[in-house]
Structures are given as C-alpha cells and as structure tokens.
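Hey, can you fold this?
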Amino acid sequence: MKLTPRGPADTDVSQLVQNDKAVKSARREADTKFPQSGESTKIDIYEQARRLQRVAELARTGDQLRVDKVRQIKEQIEADRFEVDSKEVAKSIVRSEVAGLLEKK
C-alpha cells in the first residue's frame, strides 16, 4: 500500500465522490447550464451550495474510513494476524508507476 502525506494512496474517497449521484448530476447540470450566446445566465447558489456540502461530507466520510482502516490494520499487526495480499501490492505498484508515467507526459 502506497502511503502519501494524506494517507494510503488507494483510499476509496475519490471513488466515493466519483460514484456519488449528486456530484454526477451537478457535473451534468453544469455542462448544460452554460448559456448560448445572447442568453442570460441564472445561477442557483442554494443548489450549488447543497452539492458542495455533499462533496465536503463525502471527504469527511473518507477521512473517517481512512482512520478506521488504519486502526484495523494496527490491531491486526498487534495480534500477529496481519497478512499482505501480494497481488494487491503488485496492482498498487503498477497503478502508481502508470500514473507517474502519465503525469510526465
């Protein structure tokens, strides 16, 4: 598992945000709400604030998930029950290397 300053790199936070229906609908609406030339722009700040609040809630949930996962791993290590899945480690290494190569381009 790759660790970053914010915790494990393979956390599910980004997946939670990406899978969240409110976030997806906000993206779709933002894409369709831009006016064509000559049209006026209407912004629903209340609705956007609710969506941002949902994203912030997902981020907090992700932090709690990370804390719970670290606590669980610590308990397993202390009880000599922690096992490393070599396939998952290999996948993480490959993901990390591919991401690094893509960032360089």
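Oh, and this one too while you're at it.
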Amino acid sequence: MLEELLDLFSCEASAARLLREVRWAGGVRCPYCRSEAVIRWAWYRHAYQRYRCKACRRTFNDKTGTIFAYSRIPLKEWLFLAYLLGCLHLSILKASREVERSYGIAYRSARKVMHAIHKGEDEGGSGKLSGIIEMDETYITAGLKGRGNHGRILCLGRKPRRRGLKAKPGRGSWKDDRPPIMILVERKKREHYVPSTDAEGETIGRIASRHVERGSHIHTDGFPSYTVLQSLGFEHEWVNHSMGEYARGDVHVNNCENRASLLKPWLAVYRGISKDNLGIYLSLFRFQRTTSQIPSLQRLKLIVKA
C-alpha cells in the first residue's frame, strides 16, 4: 500500500492511471454528450489517454471535465495535496509547504478539492436519517474572514473582528459571528452536520424536516426550541441537563456531544474560517470521519471520484 502511494506521488503516469481507473470504472462516456460511442484517439502528454466521441465528434482526455483539467499543476501534486487534506488533515498552509507551492496556488487547489467533496456529499449523501436520532447544537466562532468581505463588514457598521477575540457568553447566532452547528447522529452511526443561522424553534424544525424521516425518534437536551419537533410528526424525548440528568435509559445526546468535542479542535487546525465556508469544511470533516476505517489509497480514490 505504501509503495503504491509513493508511486502515485512521484510518477505522473501512475497518477493518470489511477484517475483513469476511478473515472471510467463503468466505461468511458463522452463528457459533452454522455455517449458511450467512444474510441481511443492517441495520448495526451504521454500519460493521459485521449478519446474521440463518434456521436458529437469531439475529443477529450482523462482530465476533461474534472477539477484537474487545464491545470498547470501535475496530477501527482493534486493527489498529494488531496492526501494531505483528506487523509492527514493538514492545514492548507502546511500543505502548501509540503507540495512546495505558493499559498495562493495551494489554497485555490485545496478549495476545488473541498468543493468536490462537498458536492459529492450533497449528491450522493446518505439520505435522511431514520430510527433513533440524537440532535444537539454546538457554537463556534466564525466571522467574515477574507479580503473579499471588507465591504460586507463595513455594511455591518463595525470594525473587523480581531484574531483571538473571546466569544460572548450564551448562545450565538449567524449575525454575531457565532453560528450554531446542528449535529444529527443516527444510532446506526450515520451523521449530518448542518450550519444554521440560529437555534430558534422554526429553524430547528426546518433542519429536522430536511434531514430526518417523519415518525423517527429524536433525542435532545432540554433546550426549549426542540419542543417544536413533537408538532412536526417526530417522537421527541429529552434529558434535562440543568437538573443533572444526562441519560435516562437509552435517551441521551452523548454521541452528539462526542462529535462536538471532536469538531472544534478539528476546525482549530485552520486558524479561523469564514462562516460562508462552513459547509465545505463540515463536509470534509464528515468525509474524514466516515472513511477513517478504510486504507488511505481507497480514501484517495473516493476523493478523485468526487
């Protein structure tokens, strides 16, 4: 396994062979018209197979229509960057040093990889949760990070938030840069992470209806906003943390609290993120958790497939 990984990161032909194996696993199809009437048409840069579609008469290669197309970065470096982000969980800054590229190039490439994972999670996700589901919220500090948000910050009528600024006590919201993350964990081990604008009952009801099958049992803590779940067709039970009750039989939210304790230090690696990008980071976190038991080579193939 280690030899295969090292070969992928050092040989462009091996990286192209992996892309070809993953992308055309079900047969070669034209990325323009989706026709299967495709023939081989020489090679591209001595590593990538080139094809010609008999239906639309256009040519393409293994990278056409992927995030690797028209990139000046070799595919082996793309795969190494994806490995550092998706398997080793390095920050983009550290990854840029490992691939020996400028931070700007590594950042743009990493964003493409993360967006591909996020899109794959949305399109082929695990669907709605069912059975017994735990639901809880956790709050993180995430503002309008990035140069492109200068105008938006001015519209808020305040100065840019300083690094390391301590969060205000109490529950936060999207407006005060402490957006809640709704964590839903199925007892079958499937899990969803949903960034939210607030933790009001109406918002919680929409999230539950979107991610949980009607008639399922939802366990929460005693936060009043969760009382709306009963009126939406869910079986709702809760534990009262304020009274020192953390479990009553099989009613608890311990799995959600476990995920929250893992999520916060995981996000801390990136040294602050924009709240607009929370979705793609949460998709990467979920991908790493759901694939943690499989070999790195298989995880890399899943990233390429996305």
